[in-house]
Amino acid sequence: MAIRVLLVDDQPLLRTGFRMILEAEGDLAVVGEAGDGLQALDQVRALQPDVVLMDIRMPRMDGVEATRQITGPGRDGPAKVLVLTTFDLDEYVVEALRAGASGFLLKDAPADELVQAIRVVAGGEAMLAPSVTRRLLDKYADHLPSGEEPVPDTLHTLTDREVEVLKLVARGLSNAEIAADLFVSETTVKTHVGHVLTKLGLRDRVQAAVYAYESGLVRPGAQ
After folding, report:
1. Which 8-state DSSP code applies to residue 33?
2. DSSP classification of residue 178
3. InterPro entries in the record, alphabetically (predicted)?
4. Which uninterrupted H or E stretch holds 60?
5. Which residues contact 153 (CB under 8 A, 6 or more apart)?
């Protein structure tokens, strides 16, 4: 079955461009469009898309609040949100990730990256580009813990190996890269990642990365 996509952006020209790119793919179907967050909520309820391609800055309701209402805590709908941001990285992207977005993509990303990102998010994974993630977290280093704060009690529920995996996830490494780094199989890494998400009550790898920084486990700029 085709992946059902809802386009949310206040610029009609951009929506048209995205539609042309996505409809050229046999496994993607654009089921609707919205020009602001309020319209997006209505469209999500009516159309039940698999992935919402969400702009951040829009009139009436921005992408952060719309994301929160679509995929935030307590929500159990099928829609995943892929946030669109400018090259300079909107200051609201961190909040969108906390609200439940499954990742973010630059608006000037190549067409093949856009298509792949939608497929990744629809498959239940997170779109966590290492270079962009590091820039984003470094940009907001002043708003994140310094590492001197007490470690959250929830972190103590993880095994030593799970903590190692969480640190590598926070650096933006894929399962294959983590497996190579730790000399284990990808299946083992997937199991560890699953345990981390379950124990910490997190939705996906994006929220795991944000948690790692907010808890002080990983510091912005650290390798």
Report:
1. E
2. H
3. CheY-like_superfamily, NreC/VraR/RcsB-like_REC, Sig_transdc_resp-reg_C-effctor, Sig_transdc_resp-reg_receiver, Tscrpt_reg_LuxR_C, WalR-like
4. none
5. none
Measured CA to CA, the distance from residue 53 to residue 218 in angstroms comes to 29
Whole-Å CA distances, 64 to 101, 135, 137, 167, 181? 9, 20, 17, 26, 35
Q: Are 44 and 70 in contact (CB under 8 A)?
A: yes
The distance of Cα 223 from the centroid of its chain, to the nearest Å, equals 21
Per the structure block, which two tokens stand in for 177? 């890269």
For residue 85, the cross-strand partners are 106
- Three-class SS of residue 53? strand
Sheet holding 28-34, edge to edge: 28-34, 3-8, 51-54, 80-85, 104-106
Q: How many whole angstroms separate alpha carbon 36 and alpha carbon 31?
A: 16
Are residues 101 and 67 in contact, defined by beta-carbon separation less than 8 angstroms? yes
